Amino acid sequence: MGNLDIVIIVVIGANIIMSLKGFSDFSFFERYKFNIGGIRRGEQVRMLSSGFLHADMMHLFFNMFTLYIFAPVVLGFLGNFKFLAVYFGSLLVGNLFSLFFHKDEYHYSAVGASGAVSGVIYAGILFRPDMSLYLMFIPIPIPAYIFGIGYLLYSIFGMKNKLGNIGHDAHFGGAVGGYVITLILAPWLFQENLLMIGLLALPIIILFVMQRLGKL
Fold first, then answer.
1. Which of 103, 99, 116, 113 is closest to 169 using CA atoms?
2. Which candidate, 128, 150, 133, places its Cα nearest to that of 196?
3. What's the CA gap between 21 and 3, in Å, rounded?
4. Whole-angstrom Cα distance, residue 84 to residue 137?
5. Per-residue pLDDT for the chain (216 aa), expressed as one digit of tens each?
């Protein structure tokens, strides 16, 4: 593998090591998971550490496999340092969304790299909106930008209806983080993909309007 791939290996390796530690050490898991009460007590490390813990092996595998698919696209356009800025920035923005929407739920907890991975997915779509994705149970390729818009609309639906045991707000926040950070780091996208930037912004605008109207 080339030098760029080293970054992917290190990030995935850190997720695997911390997640395996969390699987076998309950106190470690409890100390570093995302928890509203803990964060509001000043345990800010949870905002970062929770992104390297996972609920189970399937959760870990799905996030790391998705990262492995999309990370090379972002690395190819941004390089190592800026890729890490997208990854960690998306992780933190995702957790900030969770903190905002659950700020009074002191027992609310979550784990997973989904916010960071969502940001990398959205960054990849900004760079390569022409990509086609293949999803389970869907026999035809889906344009990347359609997937991105649908993903965020589904996240809004999940947030509004508290659908499943999934941190939809962290997913949405991570995607927003990846979107904004990528545009800051690669402003030339405004010249090449302005229409796509506008289309991908639609779910973000919808969420903002719904929140202002008290619909979430």
1. 99
2. 128
3. 28
4. 32
5. 444 589 999 999 999 999 999 999 999 999 999 999 999 999 999 999 999 999 899 889 988 988 998 899 999 999 999 999 999 999 999 999 999 988 999 999 999 898 999 899 999 989 998 888 776 666 778 888 887 788 778 777 776 766 555 577 888 899 899 999 999 999 999 998 898 899 888 888 888 888 777 776
